[in-house]
Amino acid sequence: MIVPALVLSASTGDLRQATEFNQWKNVLFIIQFLLSCFLGFLLMYSTVLCSHYNSALTTAVVGAIKNVSIAYIGMLVGGDYVFSVLNFIGLNICMAGGLRYSFLTLSSQLKPKQPVDEENIPPDLKS
C-alpha cells in the first residue's frame, strides 16, 4: 500500500505539501508527530490483540463503547464543539443506535442454542 499511497499523494500534490511543511524543523512538533505514530501503531496492535484473545464481537462492542465515550468527552473537552440542540439530538440518536446495535448483536450471540430432540425427527430427515 505504500507505493499506491505515494503515487496518489504525489499526483494530488499532498506529498509536496507534506515535504514543504514548515514545522519539520520544530523539535516539539517532531516529538509529537512520532508519538502520534507510535500511539496509532499501539492502538492497531491492541485491536488485533483484542480480536485474537476474544471474539470479533467483543472487539466491536468495546469499540462502540470507546467511540461513545470519545464523542461525549470530546464535547466537554477541547473547545471546538459548538452546541446546538439539533446537533446534540443527532449525536445522541447516533450513539444510542450504535449502542443498541452492539447490545442486540451481543445478546443474539449469547443466546443458548435450542437442543435438538433426535427422537422426534422424522426418519426421512435423518441422514
UniProtKB/TrEMBL annotation:
Taxonomic superkingdom: Eukaryota
Species of provenance: Myotis myotis
Subcellular location: Membrane
Keywords assigned by UniProt, alphabetized: Membrane, Transmembrane, Transmembrane helix
Taxonomy of the source species: Eukaryota, Metazoa, Chordata, Craniata, Vertebrata
Transmembrane segments: 28-49, 56-75, 81-103
Membrane topology qualifier: Multi-pass membrane protein
Record-level GO cellular component terms: membrane
PANTHER family, per the entry: SOLUTE CARRIER FAMILY 35
Protein name: Solute carrier family 35 member D2
